[in-house]
Amino acid sequence: MTPDPSSHITVGTRGSDLALVQAHSTETILKTAFPDWHFHRRVIKTTGDRRTDVALAEVAKAEGIFDKGVFIKELEQALDDGSIDIAVHSLKDLPTVLHPRFSLAAVLERASMRDVLVTRSPGGFETLLTGSRIGTSSVRRAKQVEFLYPDLQVTDLRGNVPTRLLKLSSGEAHDAILLAEAGLVRLGYLPEIPCSKMPEPVLNMPGLFATRLDEHHFFPAAGQGAIGLEIRADDTRCRHFAESIGHPETSLRITAEREFLRLLDAGCHTPVGVFSSLVNGQLHLMARVFPETGGPPQTSEARGKDPLTVALHLFQSLI
To answer: Which residues are catalytic?
Structure first.
């Protein structure tokens, strides 16, 4: 694609530390792939960043925003008015079904999809005392703690990753917190490769320790660890940019995970964990779904080559 010397592409992002790191990574890849083009960044404050006065699960209700829009509404408005051209998202924040005006054009290579338990002393869930307070804003994480470790207490936790770590370090409201491994790695709090199977010290946060949780035991969120690039649906130029840097294997896995959520009609506040793996072209999809009426979750899995078919088989196994 021959560049117009007067043209530039504006990348939109939230302003959290993690969002900025993800935007920087995206811009670096774009600049490497398209060295003759100019890429600029615009930081946008979203409803989810602004409304820290209530639990995250209540923000959408308070603001009248459907599904996961609390972290994307303003970015989509910027896409609509042309003030940005590509929105960079943590994919797990993106609604399962987008408005026809918008398109998930590509996803970058996925980082780890696991969750991490962070504590003030070395040890995982099993070392926590009865009644210990586990901080999270995720209903998926909260439901799994209640199911797997019913003697522990879940408490609400808002804020960006550094803020959450500092809140834990203070010991005022939480005995442990749950965070995504990908975010901790991208922000430099954990090495990409674990140094051992034992709890690891959180880098630059003395006194905190991290235990990476096996995804087969503690199910992650659909899309966790992946970065999604959203564009205007009719923007062929930016679609070319996004698709050129997308990661096919990650896209295949994400397609299955998001299609399962669509079939389940699950939003960001639906307590469901789902994850995938791809080995020798064979897609393996697993899910843990908590019924809205309460009670124990359903767990199932499906395998195959076509992501939409695998998602359908997984959905049908749960109904």
So the answer is: 93
